[in-house]
Structure formats: C-alpha cells, structure tokens
Automatic annotation (TrEMBL), chain A:
Keywords linked to the UniProt accession: Membrane, Protein transport, Transport
Designated name of the protein: Vacuolar protein sorting-associated protein 35
Family: Belongs to the VPS35 family.
GO molecular function: cargo adaptor activity
Gene Ontology BP, a term: negative regulation of endoplasmic reticulum unfolded protein response
Region (Disordered): 89-120, 813-846
UniProt keyword annotation of Transport present: yes
A Pfam family hit: Vps35
Function: Plays a role in vesicular protein sorting.
From TrEMBL, chain B:
Gene3D superfamilies membership: P-loop containing nucleotide triphosphate hydrolases (3.40.50.300)
Organism: Scheffersomyces stipitis (strain ATCC 58785 / CBS 6054 / NBRC 10063 / NRRL Y-11545) (Yeast)
UniProt-listed InterPro entries: P-loop_NTPase, Small_GTP-bd, Small_GTPase
GO cellular component: cytosol; fungal-type vacuole membrane; multivesicular body; vacuole-mitochondrion membrane contact site
Family under the similarity heading: Belongs to the small GTPase superfamily. Rab family.
GO biological process: cytoplasm to vacuole targeting by the Cvt pathway; endocytosis; piecemeal microautophagy of the nucleus; regulation of protein-containing complex assembly; regulation of vacuole fusion, non-autophagic; retrograde transport, endosome to Golgi; vacuole inheritance
Protein name: Gtp-binding protein of the rab family
Length: 970, 215
C-alpha cells in the first residue's frame, strides 16, 4: 500500500485527533468512575495504533499520545485501587477489630482474597456511585477486547498497574504478558507494543533475590530477542522495490530494539545480589553470550552494526575489558562479511580511550579525597587493564581478520590500524614497539593492497595521527618503519602533507580545528637537533619539500585560484603556500643547534646542506641565505672564542684556526653555489651575503679569506651588477642623495660600507680593494652617481676610529709602531708609508694609529668636485657641491690637513657664486609666467640653498661651541 | 488529596552528549551516581512524586534524552505535552554552553507549545565538582551573554549543580516542578476545556476500522 506523504500527514492528524477525542471521553468517564465505558474509549483510541500507513516516526507520535492517555488511566486505576484498599482495610479493621498487629502479616493474603472478591466487595463498599472492578478482574476483562493491539495494550497497562500494587503476582503477570505479546507479529506494531511493555515494566522488574533476578534478565532478553526478530523481519516484507524504504524504516525503529539492552544494563547495575554475585561475571557468563549469539545469528547488516554499537555504548568498560577477546574473535569475526568492522573497533577503542582519560583524571585528582573508593578503583584498573595485552588482543583480532578476508578493502585496514595506533598511544604512550609493528605491517602489506595512488589518502591519516600525538617529534626517530611507510606513499602531495605536519609539530605550531570550527594555533617551545642522526632523522622528511618545485603552479588551472607571487622579474610565479613551506624549512635550519659543540654544529649545518638542501637548486635561493647566516653566526662564536684564547695563552691553537679557515672555505663554496644558480636575478642578495661573510672574516682576522670574499664581491659586481638593469624600476630622483641612485651605485655604497670598518687587512690588500672600488665608483654611468660614489669612497682613506680593541694594532697601519704587542700578525707590510698621517683622536689618551692618506682623500674630493661641476643640470651641480662641502667638513673635523680652512673657504665661495648665478637666472625667468617647470626648479634651488644655509649655520655653531673650523669664513 | 487527581508534570532534559543529563535525573530520582558513562539510547523517563510548597503533591515525569543524534532515530515526539524544559550544559565544556540556544530552539519547534514566549525553561550547569582550572574561563560572562543575546533576554533560572555530589540538584528540580506546575495550570485553564467541545465528526474515522488488519 503506497500512501503519499501528504496523505500520511492527514492520516496522522486524524489519528491524533481521534486519540485526543477518545482519551478525553475516557477521562470524562473516569471522572464519573465509569470504568467500563472508559475502557471502551481506551480501546477506541488504541485502535488507531492498528494503522499501517504511517512511517515509524509518525507512529511514534501516535504512540506517545497513547502512552500519555494510558498513563492517566493507569494512575486512575491505581488511585481507585488504593482508595478501595484503604476503605477495605478500614472495614476489615472494623470487622475483625481483634488485632491490628497481625494485619501486616496478613496483608498479602487479604489483598489476594480481595482481588478475587473485588467486584462484590466494591459493590458493597462504594455502593451506588460506580462499579470499579479490581485490577485482576480488569486484567481478565480486557482479554475480551476484539482487536489484539488494543487488547494487549490494555492488558499491559492494567497488568503493570496491577503489578505495582502490593501482593500482586508480578512474575506470573510478566510471563503472561510477554507470552501474549507474541500475538502481534506485525513488525512495527509488535515493536512498539513490546517497547510499551518494556517501558511499563521497567520499575516493576523484580530482582530482590537471585531467582527473581534471573527471571527478570530472562524476561528482558526474551523481549529483546523477539523484538530483534520483528525488526529483522521487517526488512523482508513487502515488495522488493520497497527495500530501501524498509531499510530506512528499520533505521528509525532501531532504538526500540536497543532499549531492551539499555534496560538490561540498568538491571545488572542495580542488582546488588549476594556476596558471590559479580556483575562483570554475570554479564560475561549469561548476558553476553546470549545477546551476541542473537546478534550473530540474525545475519542482518543493520541489526548487527547497530546492536554492537549499542552493546559497546551501554555496558560499562569493565565489562568490555572482561569480554574483549571473545567480543573480538568470537563476535566481530562472525558478523556479516560486508559489515565494517573498523567502525565497531573504532567505537570500542574510542570508548576505552575516554575511559582511560577519565580514570587518569580520577586517579590524579581524587585519590586523596576518596581513599576508600579510589583504592578499590585502582585495584580495578590494575586488574582489568594490561595495556600490552589490550593491544595484543586487538592485534590478534586484526591478523585473524586479515587471514579470513584477504580482500579486505584498504579503507578498512587503514581505519583499523588508525584505531590501534590511537589505542596504543593512549594506553601505552612509551611503547613504540606496538606502533612500529603497525607500521611494519602496513609497509609490508601496503604493496599488496595498494591498487592505485588514490588509496593513498586513506593511509595518510595513519601517519598523521601519531605526529599529532607525540610530545616530541623525536619519537618518530624510534620508529624505523614509519619512514619506510612514509616512502611508500606514492602521492607526493600526501608526503608533503605529512612533512608539513612534522614541521609544524617541530616548530611547535599546533593547529587544530576547535569544536566551533575555528582554527586554533598554539605555539610551543621548539626542540633543537644536536646530532647528525637527528638532523638525518628530521631532514629525510623535509626532502620532499626541499625538492618541491612550484613551477606547475603557473598553469591556467591554478590561475586566480591560488594567490601567487611574481618572482624573478615576472618570469616565474610561486604560491604563498610554497613560499611559506620554504620558510618553514628555514625555521627548521635554525633548530640545528648544539651550544656545547659549535664545530659539530657547523658540520651538521654543512651536512644538512650537502645531503638535503642542495637537492633542488631552484630552491636554494630560499633556504641558503638562512643556512649561510646560521653558519656565519656559529663561525663568529667559535672565531671570537678562538681569538680570546689566543690572546690569553699566546700559543696559538693552530688546529682551531685551521678549522675556522676551512669552514670559511666551505661557506664560500656554498655562497658560490648560490651565485652559480641564482646570479641572474639575485645578484644583489648574493653580493650582500658575500659582504656579510667578508665582514665576519675580517673580524676574525682571516685576512686571506676576507680578501677573497671581497674579490668575489667585485666579481659579482662586474659580472652581474655593472650592466644589470636596475631593479629599482621606478623613477630615480637624481637630487635625492640617500634613497636614489642606480643599483650599481647602491652596490658600491654597500661594499664601501663594509670596507670602511675592515681593520685586519694589510696595507697593500686594503689599498688594492679601496682603489678598485673607488675606480668602479668613478666609472658609474651617471654624473651624480659618480660624484657621490667617489666622495663616499674618499672616507675609505681616512679612518676616523680604530674599531678594534685597545692595545691592538691594525695591520693596515705601519707595523713599526705596532711593536711587540701586535707582532703576532705575520703579514707583510708595505714599507711605503710616506703619506700616512698620525693624528690624535679626539678623546683618546693613547696614541691610536689609524690608516689615513690625506692626499688620496683630496684627490677623491677633487674628482667629485670635477664631476659635480660637469653636470649639465646647474641645480644638481649646486646640490652636489653642498654635499661635497659637508664631506670636507667631516675630514676637517677628523684632522685632514689638506681639507683645511682655505680649501673649504674656496668651496663655500664656489657655492655662493653658483647660487648668485642661479638666482640671477631665476629672477630673469620670473618675468615669465611661473609655470610648473619653473616652480619645480625654484623649489630645487630653494632646497639646495636651504641645505647650504644649514651647513653654514652648523659651521658657525661648531666654531662657537667646539672651537672647530678655525679660519673658515662664513 | 484523595479527592483530587494527582498532577502529572512532564519535564524534558536536553543538552549535549556527556553533560550529565542521565546523572542529574538519577541523582534526583534515585540518589545514585555512577562514574561509568553509558550513552542514552532513545528517550526514557523516570517518575518521582514530590510535594510542592509542602502541600501539593505532584508526579514529575522526567524525560532523559539522548544527546547524540544517532540515538534519537525515532524523532522527538515525546517533547509534546512537556510542562518544563531543562537545558543542561557542562561547566567544563564551552561548546555545550554555546549549544543551549539550539537545544531550546529545537525544543520549541518540535514540541509545538502554545506559549513559546513564556514557556518555562531552566538552565543547569552541571559538574561544578570538577577542578576550577578545568572550568570554562569567565563562565558567568559567557552565560550572561548567551541568555541576553540568544535566549531572548528572558530570565530563565540558572542552577549550577553537581550530579556527582548531589549539590543543588534537589533545589533545581524543586524550581522545575514549580515552573512546570504553573505551566500545567495555565494549559488547563485555556486548553483542556476547549477540547471538550470537540465535535463528533471524527467518529467517521472510527467506522473505518474494519479496513485495518485484524491484529
């Protein structure tokens, strides 16, 4: 019979109103104490439950409505029973007033008698108002009801009410009711009827002694078995086209069947029994075998999966521990072959995990308070859970399962193994053997099972779970098969995912979705890696990221989907994700740390590069800078320590020195490699890296290394920067002396900046370098660049400070003055020092020797003046003059005799003349309309004049305050 | 009392899985508490008779429900006719607190009560026996926020209980009973008499019983 949904709704509504109507009528009759009529109405509304046109959910609505009404009936019956009882007792008491003391003793028998003679007595007692038969009679009476569904419902409501009265033959009624229920074999009606039976009897079940208890359990089990049969049978009713529908209906009905097990669990809990009774044992011996046998034998997929789920959920953990082996190997293995065992196992294991957490909470927080209780509990924990055995039970089950069903899908394997891992991690977090067993098995078998790469993602979780769980990522090192299994993943994306997971863990970033779906990040203190083995252990998981190439990202598929970053002047596109991965690798490089042995640390860093980082030359540009700066940092530490030692002990540890030198050489090789592959787009960066290395080498007195590094800088400059188009694509303002300038100019300034603080070159080398640099400067393309580069370079000839420790002499200056103190440097000194000046620094007591060459300074200044003068733009010329003036002032302050007042005065005059000339031009031009171009020039002019005025006022101030600049005419 | 019929009050306990609904009910009805967690399958009730204000006897029918949806396959028809609804959360579980609103909404939609605006709800925060450190930080503020913004600014009574130690459980159910009684009396006043005027048109339906199956 097919009924449309709207029809069903109509039917439901009319049924509900019929029930409401009839139940109101029933209540009216009850108020009038007309029980027979009330029962008639009751039967009427119960008839509604005979429908078979409704879905289980709708039927449930009817059931609830009926249930409520029957509850009213039951209450009324109970009340009037009690009332009568009361009156009867009074009468009884009046009749045989001989003794009140034995009344209690007789109570049982009297009640029984009363029940039998109820009708008669009630007529006598209540008389005219109504005929209220006693419950036993009513129980008999309703048996004559025409239809079986109403009949049985009424029977149950009266029977259970009867049972709740004192002295009722409870067990007989129970037996009778459960037998009678067999009469309804229509699945839905039968299920609800039996559900009603179980709901009504739940607080009446007798279990005061072992006998009663057994009967009760039997009652519940038999109800369960019958309901399960009805439930399973429903599947096979009706046309085969309705199979899906039936399946859905059955799914809805499942809780009715499950409720029996719930009751059973409650009863077992509630029964105290005698001393020999143990609820676990009872469950194990009686309940478990019967129930599971039923579950296995019904051979129904839905029934089995649901009932096992319920079984796991509603019986306490102790029970499951006790029956675990049997549950796994006798039950799980015998279930429907298509049933997903993994789900059941997962449920069971989740339960155990929750239990474990709870128990450990309990034992930490409450043991002291509840000493008695917890003692007991502890004993329980010890007796029930042996973690190794627990794992072994599951493992045994797994092997058997695999043996029985070698065709088990990969999903199942993966899910099962995941559950086992979770279990092992919870119960036995330090037992890595279990985990390795899992991974070993997975590794060996994955080859056989694996059909294609798609399966990979099933295995992915298997690897991710422990990563998230471990406190320390180093735990992974103890699992050799973890890596092997990792390598078996054929999908690189998945390997990447795991690697990222490891990195995140490593960096102390825990990301997880919280319950509301937000991602929460927690940052922990990351761990460091001190040994080569550890470096190996971790970098082998990073290799996939190191090798990762992001080229495919530029395909149209990804365009617009992923945000991308343009690199290499638009020739390449990379994703944010890729960049962030590379960044993470860099962060891991930072974790290679060994404070106690810096040389070991250095060799680890080198090792990481040699074995891992250089596996994809495209990517070294992202990782090498970090690596290099780490190496430099470490070199600095060992270098300084070495120098200090040398100074203290005098005797040089040549070996250390040598090690440092060789490390520098290796470092140089690394930078070379970077240069080799990335010269085209990243020369600037590489130049800076060389410069940094050179500057450190100088500080560590590695002169020859340092010299070579500077030479490398010049090579980079000549090969790639001198012609390289500027990366500063935007318009350069020639007047801007700070931010402006071409890439070439900037490079020269960078080198000059480092060279100006270099102190450990011998004179020849130093002069070679600075001469060369100045030469580069003078050959720059643009006048202003030339001018500025040259005047900047002029400072290289005029040291202002020593920058090294007191008592040390720079090898750059004449060794003759250095005497024994600084004799340790065996560097050939240039004997020619005619141009060297010695000056006292401002506040120094000692005479400090500084490298100074006034003549060369002046040459440079003259050169820049010439260049400035040759500028076509008079405003720019003027600006440059003022800039040069400022340089001269610095030299003057630091005692350059050639930049004397006469020279400076000359420069000031020159500037003044220029200003006057320009002002005249300007005034002439004023007659024209002041268009924008004029304005701009005027502004530049004003700026330069202002700059000049400020310089002059500075001179004046200094003359007054510091007694400087004597003889300069302002 | 014998002259009057006993009042039956239906109370529904709702809340997320694991907040302790069953425990609360067990503690109130049977004074029992078990550490073992058993999921509730479907819905079930316990009854308890109490006297309100010392003179009025009522029977509380307390429905304990499954917090996990998969154990509620038959729907929630038993919400119908409820006189009071108890919304439970766990003071250590912020999600359960945030879900109160959806439980309330779900209840109002499904129960079809006549006065959703004034229907009596009560809020119970269970598990106050646990360590302070495990509790939701700034709980009061969050709770207030929820009652003000999401539960319609209505002043539902709030109780903090421990089903384990039996703290405040009795008191909470006393209030529940009072509120339920009020609701029941309100329903009696407008509802029950009206249905007495019910016409007999429905009897047509009764005649069709022969078409059904004979069982």
């Amino acid at each position: 019979m097919v009924v449309s949904i709207t029809e069903q709704k109509q039917i439901l509504q009319s049924c509900l109103s019929a029930i409401k109507h009839q139940s109101n009528l029933m209540k009216q009759c009850l108020n009038e104490n007309n029980i027979l009529q009330a029962l008639k109405h009751c039967s009427n509304f119960l008839n509604e439950l005979r429908t078979n046109q409704l879905t289980p959910k709708q039927y449930y609505e009817l059931y609830i409505a009926v249930f409520d009404s029957l509850e009213t009936l039951s209450n009324h019956l109970l009340n009037s029973h009690n009332l009568k009882q009361h009156k009867l007792e009074k009468r009884q008491a009046a009749l045989d007033s001989t003794s009140t003391s034995d009344k209690n003793a007789d109570d049982k028998s009297t009640t029984h008698k009363n029940v039998k003679n109820g009708d008669e007595i009630s007529k006598n007692a209540v008389g005219k108002s109504a005929t209220t038969p006693f419950l036993a009679d009513l129980y008999e009476l309703v048996q004559y009801s025409g239809n079986i569904v109403p009949r049985l419902y009424m029977m149950i409501v009266i029977g259970t009410t009867y049972m709740s009265t004192k002295g009722a033959p409870g067990k007989e009624i129970m037996k009778d009711m459960i037998e009678m229920c067999r009469g309804v074999q229509h699945p839905i009606r039968g299920l609800f009827l039996r559900y009603y039976l179980s709901q009504r009897t739940k607080h009446l079940l007798p279990f005061s002694n072992a006998n009663d208890f057994n009967d009760t359990v039997e009652f519940l089990i038999s109800n369960f078995i019958e309901m399960n049969k009805l439930w399973v049978r429903l599947q096979h009713q009706g046309h085969s086209s309705e199979r899906e529908l039936r399946y859905r209906e059955r799914k809805e009905l499942k809780i009715l069947v499950g409720s029996n097990l719930v009751r059973l669990s409650q009863v077992i809990d509630d029964y105290n029994g005698d001393e020999t009774y143990s609820s676990i044992k009872y469950y194990q011996d009686k309940v478990f075998p019967t129930i599971t046998e039923q579950i296995i034998q019904c051979r129904d997929h839905l029934a089995q999966s649901y009932l096992i789920d319920v079984l796991i959920q509603i019986f306490p953990d102790d029970f499951h521990f006790a029956t675990l082996d049997s549950l796994l190997s006798d039950v799980f293995l015998n279930l429907h072959p298509l049933l997903k065992k993994s789900e059941l196992v997962a449920t069971l294991i989740e339960r155990f995990i929750t239990y474990h957490k709870f128990e450990s909470d309990m034992s930490t927080s409450e043991i002291k308070e509840l000493s008695l209780e917890s003692d007991e509990k502890q004993k329980k924990i010890k007796t029930t859970i042996d973690s190794t055995q627990l794992f072994n039970s599951f493992w045994k089950f797994y092997l058997k399962l695999y043996e029985l069903d070698p065709q088990l899908p990969s999903e199942e394997h993966s899910e099962l193994l995941q559950s086992f891992i979770r279990l092992s991690l919870t119960y036995d977090p330090n037992n890595y053997q279990n985990l390795d067993v899992v991974y070993k098995f997975a590794t060996e078998k994955e080859g056989q099972i694996k059909a294609n790469a798609e399966n990979d993602d099933i295995w992915l979780q298997l690897l991710i779970v422990p990563i998230r769980h471990f406190d320390s990522i180093k735990t992974l090192f103890k699992l050799p098969f973890f890596h092997e299994f990792y390598l078996k993943l054929s999908n690189k994306q998945h390997q990447k995912q795991i690697s990222l997971e490891i990195i995140n863990k490593l960096l102390g970033i825990t990301t997880y979705g919280d319950e509301d779906g937000n991602t929460v990040q927690e940052i922990h203190e990351p761990e460091t890696f001190t040994t080569t083995e550890e470096v190996d252990g971790i970098f082998k998981y990073l290799l996939v990221l190191i090798k990762d190439s992001d080229k495919q990202n530029s395909t149209s598929k990804n365009l617009g989907v992923t945000k991308s970053i343009t690199i290499n002047k638009g020739e390449n596109v990379i994703s944010h994700e890729f960049l962030s991965n590379q960044e993470k690798i860099c962060k891991v490089i930072h974790l290679i740390e060994n404070p106690s042995d810096p040389f070991k640390n250095l060799s680890n860093l080198m090792y990481a590069r040699k074995k891992y980082l250089n596996k994809n030359f495209d990517n070294i540009i992202y990782t090498y800078p970090t690596l290099i700066s780490r190496i430099l940092y470490k070199l600095k530490i060992v270098g300084y320590a070495n120098l200090r030692q040398q100074k203290k002990k005098k005797n040089t540890e040549a070996s250390q020195d040598l090690m440092i030198t060789s490390n520098f050489k290796n470092l140089s090789i690394i930078i070379d490699e970077l240069y080799q592959y990335h010269a085209e787009f990243n020369s600037e960066l590489i130049l800076k890296i060389y410069l940094n290395a050179a500057s450190v080498a100088d500080q560590l007195k590695q002169e020859s290394i340092c010299y070579e590094l500077y030479t490398q800088c010049f090579i980079v400059y000549e090969e790639n920067l001198i012609l390289g188009s500027s990366s500063y694509q935007q318009h350069i303002n020639p007047h801007d002396s700070l931010a402006g300038g071409s890439l070439q100019y900037q490079s020269i300034i960078h080198v000059a900046n480092k060279l100006v603080s270099a102190r450990y070159f011998n004179k020849e080398n130093y002069e070679n370098l600075i001469t060369k640099l100045t030469l580069y400067g003078s050959k720059l393309l643009k006048k202003q660049d030339q001018c500025r580069a040259v005047y900047s370079c002029s400072h290289l000839w005029w040291w202002c400070e020593l920058l090294i420790e007191h008592g040390e002499k720079s090898p750059t200056v004449q060794p003759e003055a250095a005497k024994e103190k600084s004799a340790k440097e065996n560097i050939q000194k240039d004997e020619d020092q005619s141009s060297r000046d010695r000056e006292e620094a401002d506040d120094e007591e000692d005479e400090i020797e500084l490298y100074r060459d006034a003549k060369r300074v002046l040459e440079c200044l003259q050169k820049s003046l010439r260049v400035a003068d040759s500028c076509m733009d008079p405003y720019l010329s003027l600006k440059l003059f003022v800039e040069i003036l400022n340089q001269c002032l610095i030299f003057n302050i630091y005692g350059n005799a050639l930049a004397d007042s006469r020279y400076i005065n000359g420069l000031i005059d020159l500037i003044r003349t220029n200003i006057d000339n320009l002002r005249d031009d300007d005034n002439n031009a004023k007659t024209d309309a002041a268009d924008e171009e004029d304005d701009k020039e005027a502004r530049l002019f004003k700026q330069s004049v202002g700059y000049f005025e400020r310089t002059l006022s500075y001179i004046r101030d200094q003359q007054e305050v510091e007694n400087r600049f004597e003889g300069i005419v302002v | 009392m014998s002259g009057r019929k006993k009042t039956l009050l239906k109370v529904i306990i709702l809340g997320d899985s694991g907040v302790g609904k069953t425990s609360l009910m067990q503690q109130f009805v049977n004074n029992k508490f078990s550490h073992q967690y058993k999921a509730t399958i479907g819905a079930d009730f316990l009854t308890k008779e109490i006297s309100i204000d010392g003179n009025k006897q009522v029977t509380l029918q307390i429905w304990d429900t499954a917090g996990q949806e998969r154990f509620q396959s038959l729907g929630v028809a038993f919400y119908r006719g409820a006189d009071c609804c108890v919304l439970c959360y766990d003071v250590t579980n912020e999600k359960s607190l945030n879900n109160l609103t959806s439980w309330k909404d779900e209840f109002l939609v499904q129960s079809n009560v006549s006065n959703p605006q004034d229907f009596p709800f009560i809020i119970i925060g269970n598990k106050i026996d646990v360590d302070e450190a495990k509790k939701i930080p700034s709980l009061q503020k969050k709770l207030q926020n929820i009652t003000n913004n999401q539960l319609g600014g209505l002043n539902y009574p709030v109780f903090e209980t421990s089903a384990k130690d039996g703290i405040n459980v009795e008191a909470a159910f006393e209030v529940i009973a009072k509120m339920a009684l009020q609701q029941e009396e309100l329903n009696d006043a407008n509802g029950n008499d009206v249905s007495d005027d019910y016409n007999d048109a429905i009897n047509i339906h009764l005649e069709s019983e022969s078409s059904g199956c004979a069982c």
